[in-house]
Amino acid sequence: MGDLLERLRGRGWRLTAQRRVVAEVLSGDHVHLTAEEVLARASARLPEISRATVYNTLGELVALGEVAEVTTAGRAKRYDPNADRPHHHLVCSACGTIRDVHPTGDPLTALPPSERHGFTLTEAALTYRGLCPPCRARA
Q1: pLDDT class for 2, splitting at 50, 70, 90?
Q2: Least confident among 4-8, 28-32, 39-43, 91-95
Q3: DSSP of 100-117, one letter per residue?
Q4: How far apart are the C-alpha atoms of 42 and 24, rounded to whole Å?
Q5: Of 98, 85, 95, whose CA–CA distance to 33 is shortest?
Q6: Contacts with 47 (C-beta within 8 Å, 6 or more apart), sequence order
Q7: 68 phi and psi angles, rounded to 5 deg
Q8: Are 91 and 127 in contact (CB under 8 A)?
Q9: Can you give the pTM of this predicted structure?
């Protein structure tokens, strides 16, 4: 059983067959699927699952804080099941591939006090952009 399923069971979230298959599709490291990709993979496992059920389940998982929505400029939202582990993202500017990264150091302390404009910092979300190896090879 994947980490996401374990967390959902621990919360007492009712795991219907449809919810379970969506959670199973999302389980794993470096998983950043669009809603349509989740639907396609869930439908392959459970053909009777509906688009509405997939979208509603994704919305519930985001509301619970168990899945994070990742948005990148000009691309569809993606869903990241590793919401329980602080991390940042590395995004390919060409193909949109997303990888989880764990840089060293605290990004909250990286912003000098003169740039905080009086804000008390509570979190930071960083996105690194570049070209993945296959896109770099094509460039």
Answers
A1: low
A2: 28-32
A3: EE--SS-HHHHS-GGGST
A4: 8
A5: 98
A6: none
A7: -105, 140
A8: yes
A9: 0.83
